[in-house]
Amino acid sequence: MIRNIGVECQGPDDKWWNILMTQGLACKNDTCRRNDATCECYLTIEHRLTMMNEKDRILLLPSEGKFRPFNDTRKTYSEDEDDDFIAGDGFGSRMVIAVNRRFPGPQITAYENQNIIVHMRNLMHTDSTTIHFHGLHQKRTPWSDGVAFVSQCPILPGQIYTYSFYAKPFGTSFYHAHIGDQRSAGLYGPLVIVPLSSVNISTPQDDNDGKVFTVAIQDWNHYDEPETLYQRMLFGTFDLQENKAINTTSDISGANFSRYTCHSGIINGKGRFYNTSKTHNQAPLTKYDVEPNTDYRFRVIGAATLYPFCVYIQGHGSIRIVASDGFEIEPIEVESLIIQPGERIDFILRTDQGSGNYLLVAETLEVEPESINQYHAAEAIIHYIHKDSNNNLNPPKGSPNNCTKEIKCKIFNCPYLSYPPDQNRTCLTWNDAKTIDPNSNIDEVKGVPIERFYNFAFPGGEWLHSRVSQWASIFTPNCSCIRRMG
């Protein structure tokens, strides 16, 4: 047994590797409970293919929200069978990195102050890897921070490495690879620390009661493996059928995204590809079953490579933001939120609509003219459980909520100060949020903070140019805090 400062490290029990791989779970069932001192988990890393039935060695195709064998139009698989397949957005078949045979990896749920022990086995054939536990401070355990060549040596193919650290602070986090672009290939998974105290804590918190859901959002590219993406960003991407280069896209402020092409988005490893701006390929979506007139917590994780997403729920004009990056905030009622890669935002949904299916939609912030005829979004189904409800696994494209001059839609975490006036949207930034988190010791901060906002984009349009001059008027040479706006 190896003992580190304040944290006990232990070797793996080999019997648990295959047990947890078969179950598609992360942690032993006799740990990670509220009164347990430890939360012990086993993660096996390996390559797999999307859209492949490995048992029957046959390619899959999407069909009406389900999968079918590519050579049999009459057979479809059940929802339980579909969960064993890696979907992506249902377009073609590409390689991903799976954790315990899941994409993304299975969720680790621990309780505050537990000792989390993660045994990691690298079964990739030639690739080294490390795991970073995003959002955890790793006080007194810097060797478990997972930054390759900085806090640890990479885990070579065939090797096993054990991480050991404290479950603190509480909140929504995620674990992900910290070598190259392996995270974009799927080496990530949710990490949730449940608080022990109830003081200034929003509820529900514990997913054991079935009222807490995780929404891991990722932008998805059809063709390029992680090793290729960086080169594409340098030299561009090209459409050989149209014989032209693919231009970069931008948001409403004119800020350009890179040449990394987003074909679609996925939520918890599932999504569907839109062949046009209105028609999709009928691939299966993640489904959340909800009871009417109940409060549900959605833990939204920005696991994307590049693109920010605007998240809303079709037919529900209000969600309540209660936490960000693991910290509790004073609740804010909004219509939607924007989440950037690496961010985590929790919201509460009151299921106060009629029975049926509604889409949780996460659209990229790209400005997509109608002439391009594309739609880049991640989607999931909110299914109201009711005897008369329609469990449609292949719903049409979601319709946006109605924003009017009289009732403007509030959007949280805007990367710009405002939307064009004709969109009837009001931007809320972090100046509109107030912490109530018990771990935020504001009174301990000494001195007078000076805060300046810098926009690193190139805003376009008169409505934004007028605001640039306002921002410039407050810039001074001295600042103690810089936040990226754009």
UniProtKB/TrEMBL annotation:
Keywords: Copper, Metal-binding, Oxidoreductase
A cellular-component GO term for this protein: plasma membrane
Membrane is among the record's keywords: no
Alphabetical GO biological process terms: iron ion transport
Pfam families named among the record's database cross-references: Cu-oxidase, Cu-oxidase_3
CDD domains hit by this protein: CuRO_1_tcLCC2_insect_like, CuRO_2_tcLCC_insect_like
GO molecular function: copper ion binding; oxidoreductase activity
Domain Plastocyanin-like: 93-195, 214-384
PANTHER family named in the record: FI03373P-RELATED, MULTI-COPPER OXIDASE
Family affiliation: Belongs to the multicopper oxidase family.
Name this polypeptide is given: L-ascorbate oxidase
